[in-house]
RNA-directed DNA polymerase (Leptospirillum ferrooxidans), 146 residues
Amino acid sequence: MDKVRNILKFAQSKNQTWLIQTLNPVIRGWANYYRHIVAKTTFGKIDDILWSLLWTWLKRRHPEKGRRWIDHQYFQRRGLRNLGFTLPKGRLELVEGFKTPIRRHVKIKGQAHPSNPKWTDYLNERKTRSKLQREWDRIYGPCTAW
């Protein structure tokens, strides 16, 4: 969160596009690094802290404007769905950590050895599954079904 705080301090005169483009890689990298452990609650807490930091940044940028104006200007909605900190018409939005799927790391069996023919099928299945998963993620985005 210190890195995010520093970015927001530096971004006092920057626009919303720059801020989203700068924060997205930080949030996405952090979420992807910790997605293999039980971190959904932590992701939610981080998103809450990030929202309050963003709100402080917005209040500093628009001291004369009210809560509703800031909310309408920076936090877009589509129907009943809240898109979050988004540019108008949803062209670019801030990544939310809690939307990152938690995907458990499946340990390889301890007896499995690549040079032992007995384990060839098992190792090939693992390799195929991980290739399919990477291809699925590339085309459709992360999937938690694997």
Remarks:
- The first helix runs from residue 2 to 10.
- Residues 106-146 form one domain.
- The radius of gyration is 21 Å.
